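Nicotinate-nucleotide--dimethylbenzimidazole phosphoribosyltransferase, Arenicella xantha. Tokens?
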Amino acid sequence: MTSHWFQQPCPTIDPAMTDSAQQRQLNLTKPAGSLGRLEDLAVSFCAWQQTLAPKLQNIKIAIFAADHGVCAQGVSAFPQEVTAQMVLNFVHGGAAISVLAKQLDAQFEVINIGVNTALPDSPTLVNKPIRLSTSDLSETEAMSHSELLLALSIGREHAAKTNDHLFIGGEMGIGNTTAASAIFSLLLNLAPSETVGPGTGVDANGITHKQLVVTKAIALHAPHIHNELDVLARVGGFEIAGLVGAYIGSAQRGVPVLIDGFITTAAALLACRINPSVRDWLVFAHRSAEPAHYRALQALDANPLLDLGMRLGEGSGAAIAVPIIASALNLHNHMATFDSAGVSS
Ligand SMILES: Cc1cc2ncn([C@H]3O[C@H](COP(=O)(O)O)[C@@H](O)[C@H]3O)c2cc1C
Ligand SMILES: O=C(O)c1cccnc1
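Tokens:
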């Protein structure tokens, strides 16, 4: 059987480093376990970076942007041209993720992987459109198998490099909550009523209509689905496939990935189904207000760090969680031990 790059295993986690990091946590001047999940985060970063003094200096944020043919069905509260307009807003520094990336001093890159308007190259914007939009997933396959393979490789090209400490993937693509809901319905065997939500803010009638669109898509595609790649090609999006490639590529290079919200969790679920060794390299940042996100998180056995009622996407929820990780590592690296501080244990 031929093996694709995305099926190659990620590095395994060294249990000895995990033990040593846990031991250091026990020696710090606090009751054991009192820093809760901050302790687990620090221990995970020690194991990922193979050091007892983990760093969080090089953060890479890559936003994948693409348009969706399914927008023709009226599934979003916003018009399709907002995708391209928001890409320009990312580049000009006005989008939420632009502001947060600057705050975090992160590397920031936007990849046009299939936006329906020509966009100018710039230091932050890379134009690699596979096509001007996917096809309408409620009527045909969103993309071909060869387009899918190309999107996965573009994702890997823009993944973290080995000297990065953290990767955040973001997405922009009007209509992409419909694609994400269809992915969850097919992978988790859930009815569209359980996976469809308001996205950018469609009303109750809009949600009912969106459910019908997803129901139609599932009826059309389900008989032809043999594996996860079929799900991604048939009801996914170019930016979702790019994220899958970037997540797998980052994890294979030994860089942990911080997952954002509803759409990025669809990419994370696909990445883990395609390559289960990716799961050990994922941290989940927040629970999105998109109603079905909690089910998707459950399916991944994921316990996100935050629940702030955010439902933006762009990688914004992940960026918001970075300072918490920074604090976890700072505490791990700089707190005194009972011995060094002369505190009785
Ligand atoms: C101005 C604006 C900025 C955004 N940034 C992210 N999204 C989010 O909304 C879109 C998905 O929602 P739906 O499926 O309902 O279209 C994606 O582009 C997502 O990233 C935005 C949406 C809008 C309107
Ligand atoms: O949680 C998300 O990622 C999300 C939710 C709604 C719309 N766009 C993104």
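The beta strands are 59-66, 107-114, 125-127, 166-172, 257-259, 282-284.
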